[in-house]
């Protein structure tokens, strides 16, 4: 009888162990690691897909697949064989687009159709959609229009349709060598495609809007700055510059976009430029922003951004807990350089800063490539007042000195 009881207990334990849901996380870098921990915290076992064997997520995953996750056909059989309950995109477009193909194949929660994702995650498709549906966005122009006499005093941007971190972007006017700018953009495009758009002068911002049943249930506005490389955001903080009315205008526009596309539950992250009462949508994405963006929101507000992000992909298994913590004055800064060097360390002398938290991305002795192609680490700084945050945060690069042994 005792053996029978032991067997029954073992069978019961086995049933409990099998109750954990299984997720495949697409992406294995440092930005994905807190997502893995959040899933584990909610009793979801996580396997990880990413080709770089030294990436941190592989050290904490249940199982690792060392695969280039841009190759969806290589991941599809693994997903089918392992019978995963969820697929989770990490913090880049390639990860998200791979996930959406698999999710649509297996009817997984948290994703739109492939067609909608191709609109939102491709600059040309997005511009065309926004223009056709009367959303505020920089107008697309042709190379011939740039060279037109009537456009002589205008400024334009040439961009790859599918790049990131500002790579491959050039600012031109009618007297510039437009074809050099086009080739530069194509060289940084996976699909060898580009767009030319009107340049809009203004302040750069983003908003993370979380959707439930077609409505925005929470959002976070952020002020963003490019201090080392002109088209790569390296400083940001919870928005102070935007007024309540400006936020409301953008929020209403984002809600209209959500309704127009009938987007599924989850995150819609939108980057935009504002000037006075005007604003223009620049980028949209449904995956998590990179460079520990969520950590800045969490430090500033106490809200569990990661849980909000993961909630829809896990069929509402990961539930965010509401908090009422006071707003803290936190800045996020990615430490980059305008030249290639052998990184050793860095000095930091930020006025009026009370506290630091640093996430290193380079070992001493490793090469640090010039921005926007590399980062030494991500620095979070806490200021005592809103005034000191505004005064110093956008100039953080000038308070940081990278030490190297370069002569």
Question: What's this model, at a glance?
Answer:
With about 400 residues, the chain is α+β, with helices and mostly antiparallel strands. It has three domains: about 1-110, Rossmann fold (3-Layer(aba) Sandwich), CATH 3.40.50; about 140-200, Dna Ligase, domain 1, CATH 3.30.1490.20; about 205-405, ATP-grasp fold, B domain (D-amino Acid Aminotransferase, Chain A, domain 1). The chain has helices spanning about 1-20, 35-40, 70-80, 95-105, 115-120, 125-130, 145, 180-185, 245-260, 295-300, 305-315, 385-390; strands at about 20-25, 45-50, 65, 85-90, 155-160, 170-175, 195-200, 205-210, 215-225, 235-240, 265-275, 280-285, 330-335, 340-350, 355-360, 365-370, 375-385, 400-405.
Q: How would you portray this structure in words?
A:
The protein is α+β, with helices and mostly antiparallel strands and 407 residues long. The protein folds into three domains: 110 residues, Rossmann fold (3-Layer(aba) Sandwich); 60 residues, ATP-grasp fold, A domain (Dna Ligase, domain 1, 2-Layer Sandwich), CATH 3.30.1490.20; 202 residues, ATP-grasp fold, B domain (D-amino Acid Aminotransferase, Chain A, domain 1, 2-Layer Sandwich). The chain is built from twelve helices and 18 strands. Strands 12-11-8-9-10-13-17-15 form an eight-stranded antiparallel sheet. About 3% of the residues have low confidence.
């Amino acid at each position: 009888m005792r053996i029978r009881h032991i067997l029954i207990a073992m069978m019961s334990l086995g049933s409990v162990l099998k109750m954990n849901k299984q997720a495949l996380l697409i992406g294995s870098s440092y930005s994905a690691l807190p997502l893995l921990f959040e899933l584990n915290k909610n009793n979801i076992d996580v396997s990880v897909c990413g080709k770089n064997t030294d990436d941190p997520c592989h050290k904490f995953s249940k199982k690792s697949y060392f695969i280039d996750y841009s190759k969806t056909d290589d991941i599809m059989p693994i997903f089918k064989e392992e019978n995963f309950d969820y697929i989770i995109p990490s913090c880049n477009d390639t990860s998200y687009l791979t996930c959406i193909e698999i999710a649509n194949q297996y009817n997984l929660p948290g994703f739109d159709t492939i067609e909608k994702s191709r609109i939102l995650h491709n600059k040309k498709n997005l511009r065309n959609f926004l223009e056709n549906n009367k959303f505020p966005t920089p107008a697309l122009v042709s190379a011939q229009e740039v060279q037109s006499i009537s456009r002589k005093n205008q400024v334009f941007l040439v961009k790859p349709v599918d790049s990131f971190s500002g790579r491959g972007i050039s600012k031109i006017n009618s007297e510039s060598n437009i074809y050099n700018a086009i080739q530069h953009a194509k060289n940084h495009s996976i699909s060898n495609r580009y767009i030319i758009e009107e340049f809009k002068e203004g302040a750069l911002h983003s908003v993370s809007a979380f959707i439930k049943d077609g409505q925005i249930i929470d959002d976070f506005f952020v002020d963003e700055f490019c201090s080392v490389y002109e088209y790569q955001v390296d400083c940001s903080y919870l928005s102070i510059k935007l007024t309540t009315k400006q936020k409301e205008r953008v929020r209403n526009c984002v809600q209209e976009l959500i309704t127009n596309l009938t987007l599924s539950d989850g995150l819609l992250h939108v980057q935009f430029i504002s000037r006075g009462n005007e604003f223009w949508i620049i980028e949209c994405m449904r995956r998590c922003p990179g460079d520990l963006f969520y950590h800045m929101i969490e430090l500033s507000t106490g809200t569990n951004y990661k849980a909000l992000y993961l909630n829809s992909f896990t069929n509402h298994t990961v539930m965010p807990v509401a908090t009422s913590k006071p707003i803290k004055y936190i800045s996020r800064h990615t430490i980059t350089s305008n030249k290639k060097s052998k990184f050793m360390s860095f000095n930091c002398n930020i006025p009026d800063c009370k506290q630091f938290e640093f996430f290193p991305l380079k070992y001493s002795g490793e090469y640090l490539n010039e921005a926007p192609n590399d980062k030494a680490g991500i620095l979070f700084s806490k200021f005592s007042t809103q005034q000191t945050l505004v005064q110093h945060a956008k100039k953080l690069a000038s308070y940081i000195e990278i030490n190297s042994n370069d002569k």
